[in-house]
Fold this sequence. Notes:
This protein is of the alpha+beta class. The chain has a single domain, classed as Thiol Ester Dehydrase, Chain A, CATH 3.10.129.10. 23% of the residues lie in helices and 38% in strands. It is built from 3 helices and 8 strands. It has helices spanning 27-43, 47-52, 127-135; strands at residues 4-11, 55-56, 59-66, 75-84, 89-97, 103-111, 113-115, 120-122. The chain starts with a strand and ends with a helix.
Amino acid sequence: xxxxxxxxxxxxxxxxxxxxxxxxxxxxxxxxxxxxxxxxxxxxxxxxxxxxxxxxxxxxxxxxxxxxxxxxxxxxxxxxxxxxxxxxxxxxxxxxxxxxxxxxxxxxxxxxxxxxxxxxxxxxxxxxxxxxxxxxxx
Length: 138
């Protein structure tokens, strides 16, 4: 499988903060979700395309490491890398400060392919997703 990495840019908003004036830990999941949707859009296979093919990819496992807190107004870059396509969809994320390049956060997710109609796990990638990964040109 070829290495594919995309970059998604976002800005820390006031509503992302906790009482300590840093990004609340749960909002990092939101950044990862947005970056993963952006990744799929960039390769030409969105979650809607996968759903229309009769499948879903729910998150089964998530690992996160908080390195340095993100703060209000900070511009972030979320690097998203596809690590595996089968038997599960595995992504690696790195959040960096856009201006300094400082690593602030890293994470991994594992998503399993499920046939929507039967709710059964499928151990091969959805054909449309596999084709888009194989033919993607960065």
